[in-house]
Amino acid sequence: MRIPLFARTFLLARPDLNDLRSPITGNGTEGPFTRSAGFLSYFEVCLLQSDSDWKIRSVVPGAESQYMFKDKEWISFDTIESVRKRAAYVVANSLGGMFVWSLDMDDFNGSFCHKGPYPYIKNSLSLLPSTLVSYA
Q1: Which residues form a coiled coil (predicted)?
Q2: Are 39 and 133 within 8 A, CB to CB?
Q3: Kind and range of the H or E element at 39?
Q4: Strands (E), 46-135
Q5: For residues 102 and 97, what is the distance between their CA atoms, to the nearest angstrom?
Q6: 24: left (phi over 0), alpha (psi -120 to 50) or beta
Q7: Where is 87: in which H helix or E strand?
Q8: pLDDT tier at 133, thresholds 50, 70, 90
Q9: More confident residue, 28 or 51
Q10: Contact 6/25 with Cβ under 8 angstroms?
Q11: Lesser CB count within 10 Å: N end or C end of the chain?
Q12: Average pLDDT over residues 94-122
């Protein structure tokens, strides 16, 4: 199962239409570190969340994935809890493992999200069995 440590960003056609499936005009503004329009790292999302003008909503109640918007900017991202739910699903269904994309997108030193270093990775790995399988 894939675990994205990034967010997708879009520019809304109208700031008053900011729900799921709202019309967009293109990719959102690039982040200060990733420098790629339409794409933010998890820690860049944390930086934006420190600005109280962003409105945060749940995608679907109970799913734990969220989106946030401010003016014409719209950002979709997974939360630590949604990653924990995916890890629990992997274990409960005896799936072969998880794929994290990518390690450098997590809050590597804990200074952006203030949840310690690598909060996404630590929270997902803590639910997985500690058995390592080698095919060498």
Answers
A1: none
A2: no
A3: strand 39-41
A4: 55-58, 66-70, 73-77, 99-101
A5: 15
A6: beta
A7: helix 80-92
A8: low
A9: 28
A10: no
A11: C
A12: 90
Q: CB atoms < 10 A from the CB of 127, how many?
A: 17
Own/partner contacts of 82-91, CB < 8 Å, gap of 24 or more, are: 83/3, 83/120, 83/123, 83/124, 84/123, 84/124, 84/127, 86/1, 86/3, 86/124, 87/3, 87/123, 87/124, 87/125, 87/126, 87/127, 87/128, 88/127, 89/1, 90/1, 90/128, 91/127, 91/128, 91/129
d(CA 31, CA 39): 7
Question: In this predicted model, what pLDDT tens digit does every residue of 57-85 receive, in sequence order?
Answer: 988 777 778 999 999 999 999 998 888 88
Q: Under 8 Å CB-to-CB from 60, ≥6 apart: which residues?
A: none
CATH class of the domain at 6-125: alpha beta
Tens of pLDDT, residue by residue over 14-42, are: 999 999 999 999 999 999 999 999 999 99
Q: Could you tell me if 67 and 82 are in contact, meaning their C-beta atoms sit under 8 angstroms apart?
A: no
Structure tokens at 56: 């945060």
pLDDT recorded at residue 108: 93
